[in-house]
Amino acid sequence: MSREFGYTDADFNKVRSELRALAGINLADSKVSLVYSRLAPRVRKLGLKEVKQYLNYLETHPDEQEHFINALTTNLTSFFREPHHFDMLQEFIQSGERCERLWCAASSTGEEPYSIAMTLVKAFGRFDISSRLVASDIDSSVLNKASSGVYPLDKVDPIENKKSFFLRGKDANLGYAKVVPQLRNLIEFRKVNLLDNSYPIQAGLDVIFCRNVMIYFDKETQVQILEKLLEKLRPGGLYIAGHSENFNHLGHLMTPIGRTAYRKV
Ligand SMILES: C[S@@+](CC[C@H](N)C(=O)[O-])C[C@H]1O[C@@H](n2cnc3c(N)ncnc32)[C@H](O)[C@@H]1O
To answer: CA distances (Å), 14 to each of 18, 19, 31, 42, 196, in order?
Structure first.
């Protein structure tokens, strides 16, 4: 295969080990071409000729780590993805459980935390609520996008009651909608690497959403991260995982209550 920049198996293996060390993410053998296509824009931008030169640059310029991570994370998400989890959150609130502080721990471009916030507003029947949500990700570019709260109309159109939650753009913003300030104000966006030893979030949380990110970590790292996340959740608090992230074997830590949803023991 002819490529614009030099790229060898050794480069791929180095990318793999760097990404694993920085973000915990394991790349499968099949991701050789994906890695090249994600890094090529950085190699081009820096005026380099080979991925190997880029990896040397990464080693000597710690600031480049942010671009490296941003380029290699997979940020697929959508509004009300796995909708049963939002029904569960609504039931949790309506059963009278305390739901004041929530954390969405791999929030990508924001569709997930805004879906949580819309669920809070729906469950409480108003915007003026005391509940607050921290939404975090390792990737600074998706956090910026999430924080701006601007989405193409086709993503927003299927949302129930969208007129209460979004403003349609005009002129230069035609074709886009922006989250209303009352919804945006319920969320604080922060950069958090789940691999870090401790998280800058106060303990006693009522709900944690951590969906579709554990799949990138090996089993041992998953359990280490889960234990750190659970330190932040109150007993009886709700922990929501992604559809292929099953923790039923950790019954001493949390009790399964439905499709990849748990209550802290
Ligand atoms: C596939 S998206 C899932 C988004 C959302 N939770 C959902 O289920 O729709 C995975 C997200 O995890 C983030 N991520 C990957 N490694 C991470 C880490 N070590 N710490 C925090 N976030 C991470 C990525 O940047 C990406 O935005």
So the answer is: 6, 9, 13, 16, 21
Domain 84-264: CATH superfamily, name plus number: Vaccinia Virus protein VP39 (3.40.50.150)
Where do the domains of the chain lie?
Answer: 9-72, 84-264
Active site residue 11: no
Q: Which of 137, 139, 184, 206 is catalytic?
A: 137
Check if CATH label 3.40.50.720 holds for domain 9-72.
Answer: no
Answer whether residue 27 shows pLDDT above 80. yes
Top mutation candidate among 73, 144, 207 for ligand 1, by most atoms within 8 Å of CB? 73
Kindly report, residue by residue over 150-177, the tens digit of the pLDDT. 999 999 999 999 999 999 999 999 999 9
- 29 classed as catalytic: no
Q: Which atom of ligand 1 is nearest to the CA of 104?
A: 6
